[in-house]
Amino acid sequence: MSNDKIEEDMEFDLTPIFRPESAVVVGLSQKNPFHPGNAMFTKNLMEMEVKTYGVAPKYKTIEGHKIYNSINSLPQIPDLAILAVSSRHTLPVIKEAAEFGIKGAIIVGGGFAETGKEGKKIQDEIVKICRDNNMPFIGPNCVGVYSPPVLDTLFLPSERMTKPKSGNVAVISQSGGVLVDQFFINFAKREIGISTAVSVGNKAMINETHLIKYFEKDPKTDVIALYLEGFNHGDGRNFCINARKSKKDIVVFSGGRTSAGKSAAGSHTGALAADNSIMSGAFKQYSVINPETENELRNTLKVYSMLANPFRNYSTMSIHGDKIAILSVSGGHGVLCSDLLEKYDLSLTKFTEKQKDDIGFLLNPTASKIAGLNNPIDITGSGGNEDIVNILEYLLNQNNIEMVLILIVPQVPQLLMTLGRDIVNLGNKYKKPIVGYVPWTEKFGLIREALELNHIPCGNTIEEAVQMAAAIKLKGEGGIRKKFSHNSL
Hints:
43% of the residues lie in helices and 15% in strands. It is α/β, with parallel strands linked by helices. This is CoA-binding protein. One of its GO terms (molecular function) is succinate-CoA ligase (ADP-forming) activity.
C-alpha cells in the first residue's frame, strides 16, 4: 500500500495543531532578531493565548525570556511543536518531539521535496516518524497556522501584517505569501472574518482533504476557502469526493492555470498541477466553487460568509440566474449591469405589460413621466427613497423574479442616507436575495454599512455586485448537486 493511500485512509486529531493549550518553538537566535523562530516565539508569548516555550541549545535567555536547551528539558509535554530549523536539523528534532509525546507539529522550514530527491528523502523519513507516532504535522515549507485568539505561527512581524477580523471563513493556502496578501489584505478591506488560516506548503502528511474534514466539524467555520497550485499524487479525486459530501461552501482559487504557472508551482511546493480545464470541470461536477480572479474570490467569500447568517434563510437552490430584476436611478448604470449579467451567466427577466403599468403607478408623478419601466428599471434622478422602497417591495412579490440588483447612486439629492435601513427592512420581510451596489466613497458609507451589517451583499462597483449575484446562483447550483448526490448514496 502506498504512503498516499495510507494518509488518505488515516484520520488525524488536528486539535493540538489548531487549538493547542501549550506549544514549543524550536529554533531561536540571539544574533538575528528577525529569525522566524524569534517572531513566532515572541508573538505567541505576548499576543496569543497558547502557553509558549522556546528551545535553542546555545542560549538560556532571549530578550529576557527563559529558553530551554532541548525539548526533553521542558517542564511539561506541549501539545504542539513549531519547528523553525533547517531541513538537516528537522529530522532529529521531530524524533525528539515524537519520543517526548508531543501530539502535533508545524514545520515552517524549506529544503524538502520542493528541492529534489535528497529533500524528498528527508521529508519521507519525517512522515514515517510522525505517522508511526500518530503525530500529524503541517508543512513543511509553510508559514503555518493563524488560529485566533489561540495561536499564530505566521513568522512575519506583527507590525508588517494586516490581519482580518475573526469570523466564519477558514482559509487553506498552499502558499504563505498568497495567504497573507491575497487573503488577509483583501479580507481586511472587505471585512471578511477568518475562523482559522493554515498554510500547508508541501502537504507531506496533512493535505487539503484532511483539513476540509476538520473544518467541516468546526462550529466556528461556515465557509472553507482554499488556494491550491495542484494536488499530490492521487489526492485530487479524494478531495472532490469529500468536498461534495461537505455541508459547507467550499471555494477553491487555483494557481498553475497556464503552462508557465504549472512549472512555477512544481518548483514552489512540489505539487502536481493538473490541466486547468480538467480541474475546473471536476470542481463544477463536485460542487466546488472555483472563481477565476481575486475579485471574484473576494466577492464570493463575502457573500457566502453573509449567507451563513440565519437572517438570510432563503433557499439559494431556488435561484437559477435567469430571473433577475435591476432597479436603478441611472439608465447608464442599468445598461452596464445588463452587459455584465451576460458575462457571468445571468439574465434579466422580462416584465409583462401589467408589471410595467404597476411599476409606473408606484412612482411619484414627476418620475413616472420620464422613467424607463422595462427591465432594467430606470426611475431617473427624480426618484427618491419612497419610490425605491415601493418598487423593490413590488418586485420581491413577483413570481417571475428570483433576485433583485439595486444600483444606488447616492449623489441623487432625493435619496436619503436612510435608504440602506429601508432596504434592510424589506430584506428581512421577504425571502428573496437582494444585492446592492453603492460606490465606494466615505460619504455614502451609512448606506453600505446598513446593508452589510444586516447581511445584504453590497458591491463597491457594479461588477462586484454582479459577481455577488453570480455567487448566489452558483451556491444554489452546488446545493442542488450535493442534495442529489446525498440522496443517491
